[in-house]
Each structure stands twice: as structure tokens, then as C-alpha cells.
């Protein structure tokens, strides 16, 4: 991992399994809706030999479109969003639609190997499955909200005599960035502190 590579925490296999089951429920519902439409609305005979293959083809198409859209648009399927995970590329960015489509197609390789492609995640340091390796992706824990990240930033001590920030000069670029991003929060904390001692 290079200095410029973002630090990402791989998602736990158990969470990935939970997300997969949640998405699988959506796929099953889509196939059920397709079957109902064909039989109840379009009057297709349930005994028609081509009905089952058609329903599975519709479900597979939905699966492909579902995965590609949500991963390329939001970085995660609804199942992954539910468990706070996302799909990322090596640089931490969201996959484009081509990579998302290839990943969805490649996932079938993980399935037809009797799950061996999924099991690879148990032995990979980044918890990558076969389709993750083939498409250059990794499933990671989703970034925390910006407010949670800001709460972890330590507030520099305040000089009680001069009212300034101790240890940071006005020409320091770190100080300039900190002050620009957190001036409001610092001011609010200072006001609350003065009020409590007043």
C-alpha cells in the first residue's frame, strides 16, 4: 500500500453474507412478479415449457441491471447499504458502470465454482472474492458521516491570556486549513466555555 492509497477496512464476510441474502430476497421478489405478470395478466399457461426459462431469464436480467445500477450509482446495492458497506476500486473510488457490469457478470464464476469464488474472501487479506479479484474491486466498510469524522479531530488548546491557539502559527498551512474548516465549531466551543465560567 502506497502513501497515497486510502486506508480502507475490508468488510467482514458475515456482513457480506447478510447483504447478499438481503439482495437475494429482492431477486426472488422480482422473479415472482415476473411470473405473476405472465400468468395472471398475460394469460400464459403455467404448464408452458418456456415459462420457467423465461422467468429465470427475466430474473437474471433484473439481477444484472440491479447490481450494475446501484454499484455504479451509489457504490453499493441496497443490501450493502443496509449493512454499511460499499464496493470500491483500488484508489477508493466508486466503480464506473462498466466495472460494475463486469463485476456482476464475473460473480457467476464465484457461483458456478460451487461457492469457491466466495470462499476466497476467507483467505484474502482484503477479503476479496474471485469476482473482486478479476475486476479490481474490494468491499469495504462504508465511510462514516462527516460529522462523526469531525468529532474525532482534536481541538487545539486555547491560550487563556491571548485567546489564540497554542502551538499553531498564523502562517502554518495546517492551521489555515483547520481554521477554515472548523472555525464555527471552535467558536461555539469557546463561547460555551466562557459561559460556563462566567
Q: Can you tell me about this structure?
A:
This protein has a two-stranded antiparallel sheet with strand order 1-2. The N and C termini lie far apart (51 Å). The protein contains 8 helices and 2 strands; from the N terminus they run H-H-H-E-H-H-H-E-H-H. With 198 residues, the protein is mainly α. Helices cover 58% and strands 5% of the residues. Helix 1 packs across helix 2 and helix 2 crosses helix 4. It is elongated. The longest helix is centred in the first third of the chain and has 29 residues.
Which terms summarize this structure?
198 residues, mainly alpha, two-stranded antiparallel sheet, 2 strands, disordered N terminus
The helical percent reads 55-70%
Order of helices and strands: HHHEHHHEHH
The total beta strand count reads 2
Largest sheet: 2 strands, antiparallel
Beta-strand content: 5-15%
Instruction: Estimate the mean pLDDT confidence.
Output: 80
Secondary-structure class: mainly alpha
Count of DSSP H/I helices: 8
The coarse silhouette is: elongated
Stretches where pLDDT is under 50 for at least 5 consecutive residues are 1-5, 145-151, 158-170
> Radius of gyration in whole Å, from Cα?
25 Å
Quaternary organisation: single chain
Q: Provide the spatial order of strands within the biggest beta sheet.
A: 1-2
**End-to-end separation:** 51 Å
